[in-house]
């Protein structure tokens, strides 16, 4: 570009309007590079709809979970603002403390935003319009904290009330002059505000105590991340606020991630004595996740499913790394997007009616890909030869079969989840939890392989066979409750059977009274015999007999019934809890690429750098770089060659040897004979290229300069050749 | 010429320039501070006379410094400006408040953006030439110790402000710290020092008895205060706190009276009733383990139920992700073990090295007494990988967990934020905490600590 200016300098060239790239819509991004592009639009729409539904549901869920703690918090604010207005002797004598709610939220910091969002919304709706929330990173110094608080408080009002724009504009211009950034400004503003809202007392003096007025909404300041605040700043701010608490009904909410004792670590007694701290403990994040999984994953409501490995990856990220429910849902979103993007048959992953319709609209190409599905081929093998031929030749027939299969898959899901829950209620109270404490663990087991072949399942069943009557009845009762709302035919049938069993258990009480004496008779009779015999051999014999008879003893009616019940449960498990991989067309609904999810969510920067350096073809996609594993083509970028050579060295690398080796490789690439004399001398260009490569390696942290030996550098990574 | 007659405590202040009645009112409002008030009055001299340029008053918290100044200046209607130094986040606010209360908003608005001291002096002179002081103007600065952290020229300039602005103005500095800690090393004008001693037990009794409950007799309340001081005087002499505690516990004290079990005069029975209660208050509400609101609710509840309420420090359990726990454990080991000993703990074939063999002189003292030592990131990760039981890929989230441990203040970053290369950390958790954490992951941390070898 040229300028008309004669002087040297930097010039800004704004891109001309027509050159501006057309911003691609989400859909364009989706279709771009998508597998099987012809139905990508439908898939995009399905994906979007599903995601919106999932998001809406999780938000509702989150609100419900937070409701309890938020309600108690709201009560606290109301109570505080009302006690402030008492004027009896005790409250006059009491030091005026600032009411403070310590909200313990757990270490899953990414989730807090949502909680605070809904908290401040709720506060604004029902208690006070004056809510300001501040974060530590924007309040390095007291000045900034003060400024943020004032801005937030006064600005929120600007957006709420349009009539007062003039006045607030004034204050905002004042605010720009940070000179006025003091709490007394806020006091004046607050008084003006409350004065205006109640008509008829314009003559009231500013300094008149606030507590006379029942209509004084508190001013709430939320400190989102207390731990990250500079203690000095916080202390000073509290000291200042306490000077104004008579005039301004202030209130604090501390968001605490670790434990409430941090307050005492951060604030000395002289400051904490100015606060009236009440503790609120929120739900733990594991419970939170359990509910989310319960409502989001373990339900036939959403057609999209995760397979065992993907679940495992998401769970381990949650448990091992961040405890963040939000990130978990983000992971589900990624899987959802990837599924619809990469699987052309995901067009069938939707509501029943739509899916059936979409089956009819499948193209020949799509049908071919169905024929190639692993699960479908397994299905075909089981059919008659004539049917097999039909399935491979006749598209319309295949479509009909597909409709049937889709219906079957839906039925499978409808039965799977209730039975899973039943099994979990039975096993979750067993000692040492053979099938896991949480339903998600059981789900993972079931996703992997046939659960009834699992050893833990056998032990669980054995333990169940020893269950006492009242416990068994209670668990079965809970199973009934689980099965009750389920609408599928099979589950209804199961429910009826289960209820019959329960009824039998209850009848047992009455029957037992009659049968009991007879049982006692059987046991006592040999004992009576025992007393008669005194011979040692006879005694031994009778004892053995007694033992035998006890072992082969007729089972009590309860035991018979218990076995019957457990066999029934076992039957349910065997018929409904088979892993999804065994279902035909499971690829439509199940996302299975755990590696993709792992790569995206749990990035490994060092591994990717090493991969790039050792096999540049992987990233550059240049045919000439393609080599057998372990070697680097001599046409690779300089840094790759240098990296490869440095792997062959020990802890200390002689720079000159390295340079020689490098020069040899590069000149071989240029087609020179490495032995000829003129190559022996290293060219300046090659020297420069080598130095650049070395400094790049240093920047990436593979080597560093060392003082141990001259002309050497130290290796910082281990392994290699 | 003696202008002020100082009497024994309790007598009335005397000064020739103010009406008797006013002085009486002043004296009533500040019990047990007559001596200091009298001293101040004599320092102030006649209203129109120049006073001493700067006075420095120090005394512990709640020893009546601000109160005495406030009452004196207000009741005697002297022109004054009261500024709290905590509130002045910038000097501009300080200047503005002074100008505002002496000359009105117009003068304050003359200050430029981010004014300097000379701006302030210029505007002050300009204004006081228009309205010269008829009486001494007083500038009271509360929490003056914070002035030390501001610009170096501010404190010396304020001390001789009278000279600078050529006006009848006196600066009164109030502080909890003695003057010796203020004196800048460049030297400055020495203010007059005035000490406010702590209230004695008798004085506290006298002051606290004044705010009696309207529906009870003065003697009854006074006996209550006597009991209260008996319990609390040894731990707390802060008048404000004591008054707060008195208000919180008075209803409990009156309980047997309201039930008709005891007469007002039966002090012993009342004492037996209230004493355990006050002792409990000392452990809970005084330390702010329990908020005053909760304390009041607890009083209304039955004895048994109130036991369920736990204080703030009772909640120390922190739930952490699995790898965060190990990172924290690794950080703790790195902080409390000497780097030389890592080989012994984390290498498989370290050979038999006895502790005595590698004891150095300075390491004989327990590392736990010396506190955590800083360690580089590399060492933390090396220990982490050998401590954690399965193979962990060095993913980005491992690194982000380290920084989130820093924001949670379980680790502290020792090097500056800007230093990207080899940052250094310290572990900031206690032994008990780390033991609890390692118990949850079945890791016997004591076996890996050099101090407990």
From TrEMBL, chain A:
Where is it found, in Gene Ontology cellular component terms? Answer: DNA replication preinitiation complex; nuclear origin of replication recognition complex; nuclear pre-replicative complex
Subcellular location per UniProt equals: Nucleus
Which GO terms of the molecular function aspect are on file?
Answer: DNA replication origin binding
Q: What is its main location?
A: nucleus
InterPro entries per record: ORC3, ORC3_ins, ORC3_N, ORC_WH_C
- Domain (Origin recognition complex subunit 3 insertion): give its ranges: 360-593
Residue stretches making up the Origin recognition complex subunit 3 winged helix C-terminal domain: 606-718
What family does the database annotate? Belongs to the ORC3 family.
Query: Quaternary form?
Result: Component of ORC, a complex composed of at least 6 subunits: ORC1, ORC2, ORC3, ORC4, ORC5 and ORC6. ORC is regulated in a cell-cycle dependent manner. It is sequentially assembled at the exit from anaphase of mitosis and disassembled as cells enter S phase.
Q: Which protein are we looking at?
A: Origin recognition complex subunit 3
From TrEMBL, chain B:
| Record's GO cellular component terms | nuclear origin of replication recognition complex
Q: Which GO terms describe its molecular function?
A: ATP binding; DNA replication origin binding
Q: Where in the cell is it found?
A: Nucleus
Location of the Orc1-like AAA ATPase domain: 30-172
Q: What is its main location?
A: nucleus
Q: Write out the GO biological process terms.
A: DNA replication initiation
Q: Which residues form the ORC5 lid domain?
A: 221-288
The UniProt keyword set, sorted, is:
ATP-binding, DNA replication, Nucleotide-binding, Nucleus
Please report the stretch or stretches of sequence annotated as the Origin recognition complex subunit 5 C-terminal domain.
Answer: 320-449
The record ties this protein, via InterPro entries, to:
AAA_16 (IPR041664), ORC5 (IPR020796), ORC5_C (IPR047088), ORC5_lid (IPR048866), P-loop_NTPase (IPR027417)
Family annotation (Pfam families): AAA_16 (PF13191), ORC5_C (PF14630), ORC5_lid (PF21639)
Give the record's family classification: Belongs to the ORC5 family.
Described purpose of this protein according to its UniProt entry: Component of the origin recognition complex (ORC) that binds origins of replication. DNA-binding is ATP-dependent. The specific DNA sequences that define origins of replication have not been identified yet. ORC is required to assemble the pre-replication complex necessary to initiate DNA replication.
Q: How does it assemble?
A: Component of ORC, a complex composed of at least 6 subunits: ORC1, ORC2, ORC3, ORC4, ORC5 and ORC6. ORC is regulated in a cell-cycle dependent manner. It is sequentially assembled at the exit from anaphase of mitosis and disassembled as cells enter S phase.
Name of the featured protein: Origin recognition complex subunit 5
What organism is listed for this UniProt entry? Dicentrarchus labrax (European seabass)
From the broadest rank down, the organism's phylogenetic lineage runs: Eukaryota, Metazoa, Chordata, Craniata, Vertebrata
**Which gene name does the record give?**
orc5
């Amino acid at each position: 570009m040229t300028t008309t200016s004669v002087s040297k300098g930097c010039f800004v060239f704004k891109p001309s309007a027509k050159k501006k790239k057309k911003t691609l819509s989400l859909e364009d991004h989706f279709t771009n590079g998508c597998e099987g592009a012809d139905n990508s639009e439908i898939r995009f729409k399905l994906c979007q709809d599903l995601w919106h539904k999932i998001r809406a549901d999780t938000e509702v869920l989150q609100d419900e979970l937070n409701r309890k703690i938020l309600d108690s918090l709201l009560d606290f604010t109301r109570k505080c603002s009302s006690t402030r207005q008492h004027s009896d002797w005790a409250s006059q004598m009491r030091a005026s403390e600032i009411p403070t709610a310590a909200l313990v939220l757990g270490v899953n910091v990414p989730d807090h935003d949502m909680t605070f969002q809904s908290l401040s919304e709720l506060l604004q709706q029902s208690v006070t319009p004056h809510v300001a929330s501040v974060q530590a990173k924007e309040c390095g110094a007291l000045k900034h904290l003060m400024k943020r608080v004032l801005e937030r408080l006064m600005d929120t009002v600007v957006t709420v009330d349009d009539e007062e724009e003039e006045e607030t504009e004034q204050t905002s211009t004042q605010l720009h002059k940070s000179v006025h950034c003091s709490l007394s400004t806020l006091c004046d503003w607050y008084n003006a505000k409350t004065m205006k809202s109640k008509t008829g007392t314009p003559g009231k003096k500013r300094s008149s105590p606030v507590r006379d007025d029942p209509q004084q909404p508190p001013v709430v300041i939320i400190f989102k991340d207390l731990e990250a605040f500079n203690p000095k700043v916080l202390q000073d701010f509290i000291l200042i606020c306490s000077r104004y608490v008579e005039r301004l009904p202030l209130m604090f909410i501390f968001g605490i991630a670790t434990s409430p004792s941090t307050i005492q670590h951060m604030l000395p007694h002289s400051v904490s004595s100015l606060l009236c701290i009440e503790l609120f403990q929120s739900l733990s994040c594991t419970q939170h996740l359990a509910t989310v999984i319960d409502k989001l994953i373990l339900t036939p409501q959403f057609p999209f499913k995760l397979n065992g490995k993907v679940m495992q990856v998401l769970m381990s990220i949650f448990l091992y790394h961040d405890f963040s429910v939000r990130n978990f849902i983000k992971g589900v979103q990624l899987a959802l997007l990837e599924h619809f993007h990469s699987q052309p048959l995901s067009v069938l992953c939707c509501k029943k009616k739509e899916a059936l319709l979409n089956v009819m609209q499948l193209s020949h190409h799509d049908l071919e890909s169905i024929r190639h599905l692993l699960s479908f081929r397994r299905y075909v093998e089981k059919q008659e030869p004539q049917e097999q031929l039909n399935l491979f030749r006749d598209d319309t027939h295949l479509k009909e079969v597909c409709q049937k299969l889709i219906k079957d898959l839906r039925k499978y899901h409808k039965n799977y989840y209730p039975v899973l829950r039943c099994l979990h209620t039975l096993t979750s109270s067993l000692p040492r939890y053979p099938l896991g404490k949480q339903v998600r663990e059981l789900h993972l087991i079931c996703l992997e392989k046939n659960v009834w072949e699992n050893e833990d399942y056998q032990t669980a069943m054995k333990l169940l066979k020893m269950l006492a009557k009242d416990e068994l009845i209670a668990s079965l009762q809970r199973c009934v409750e689980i099965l009750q709302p389920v609408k599928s035919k099979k589950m209804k049938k199961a429910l009826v059977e289960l209820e019959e069993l329960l009824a039998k258990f209850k009848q047992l009480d009455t029957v037992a009274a009659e049968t009991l004496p007879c049982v006692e008779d059987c046991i006592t009779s040999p004992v009576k015999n025992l007393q008669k015999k005194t011979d040692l051999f006879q005694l031994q014999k009778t004892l053995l007999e007694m033992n035998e008879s006890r072992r082969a003893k007729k089972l009590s009616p309860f035991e018979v019934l218990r076995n019957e019940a457990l066999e029934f449960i076992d039957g349910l498990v065997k018929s409904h809890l088979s892993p999804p991989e065994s279902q035909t067309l499971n690829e439509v609904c199940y996302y299975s690429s755990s590696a993709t999810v792992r790569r995206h969510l749990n990035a490994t920067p060092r591994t990717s750098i090493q991969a790039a350096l050792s096999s540049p073809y992987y990233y550059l996609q240049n045919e000439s770089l393609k080599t057998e594993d372990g070697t680097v083509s001599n046409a690779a970028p300089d840094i790759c060659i240098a990296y490869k050579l440095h792997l062959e060295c020990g802890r200390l690398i002689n720079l000159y040897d390295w340079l020689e080796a490098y020069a040899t490789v590069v000149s071989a690439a240029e087609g020179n004979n490495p032995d000829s004399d003129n190559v022996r001398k290293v060219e300046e260009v090659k020297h420069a290229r080598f130095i650049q490569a070395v400094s790049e390696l240093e920047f990436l942290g593979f080597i560093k300069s060392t003082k141990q030996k001259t002309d050497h550098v130290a290796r910082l990574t281990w392994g290699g050749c | 010429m003696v202008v002020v007659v100082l009497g024994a405590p309790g007598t009335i202040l005397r000064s020739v320039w103010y009406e008797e009645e006013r002085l009486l009112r002043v004296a009533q409002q500040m019990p047990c501070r007559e001596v200091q008030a009298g001293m101040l009055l004599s320092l102030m001299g006649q209203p129109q006379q120049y006073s001493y340029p700067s006075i420095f008053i120090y005394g512990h918290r709640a020893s009546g410094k601000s109160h005495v100044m406030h009452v004196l200046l207000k009741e005697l209607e002297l022109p004054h400006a009261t500024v709290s130094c905590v509130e002045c986040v910038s000097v501009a606010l300080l200047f503005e408040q002074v100008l505002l209360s002496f000359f009105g908003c117009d003068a304050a608005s003359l200050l430029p953006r981010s004014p300097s001291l000379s701006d302030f002096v210029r505007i002050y002179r300009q204004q006081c030439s228009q309205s010269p002081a008829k009486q001494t103007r007083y500038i009271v600065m509360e929490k003056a110790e914070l002035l030390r952290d501001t610009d170096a020229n501010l404190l010396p300039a304020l001390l001789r402000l009278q000279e600078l602005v050529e006006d009848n103005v006196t600066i009164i500095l109030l502080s909890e710290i003695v003057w010796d800690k203020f004196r800048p090393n460049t030297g400055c004008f020495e203010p007059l020092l005035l000490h406010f001693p702590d209230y004695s037990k008798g004085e506290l009794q006298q002051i606290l008895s004044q705010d009696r409950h309207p529906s009870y007799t003065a003697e009854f309340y006074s006996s209550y205060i006597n009991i209260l001081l008996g319990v609390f005087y040894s731990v707390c002499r802060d008048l404000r706190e004591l008054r707060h505690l008195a208000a919180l516990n008075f209803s409990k004290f009156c309980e047997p009276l309201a039930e008709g079990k005891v007469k007002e005069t039966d002090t012993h029975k009342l004492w037996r009733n209230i004493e355990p209660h006050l002792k409990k208050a000392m452990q809970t509400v005084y330390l702010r383990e329990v908020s005053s609101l909760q304390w009041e609710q607890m009083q209304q509840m039955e004895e048994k139920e109130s036991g369920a309420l736990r204080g703030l420090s009772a909640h120390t359990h922190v739930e952490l992700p699995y790898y965060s726990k190990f990172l924290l454990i690794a950080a703790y080991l790195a902080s409390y073990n000497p780097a030389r000993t890592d080989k012994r703990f984390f290498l498989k074939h370290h050979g038999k090295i006895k502790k005595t063999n590698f004891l150095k002189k300075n390491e004989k003292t327990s590392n736990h007494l010396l506190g955590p030592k800083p360690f580089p990131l590399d060492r933390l990760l090396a220990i982490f990988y050998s401590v954690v039981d399965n193979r962990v890929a060095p993913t980005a989230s491992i690194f982000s967990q380290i920084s989130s441990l820093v924001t949670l203040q379980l680790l502290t970053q020792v090097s500056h934020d800007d230093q990207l290369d080899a940052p250094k950390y310290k572990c900031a958790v206690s032994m008990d905490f780390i033991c609890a954490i390692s118990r949850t992951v079945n890791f016997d941390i004591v076996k890996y600590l050099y101090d407990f070898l």
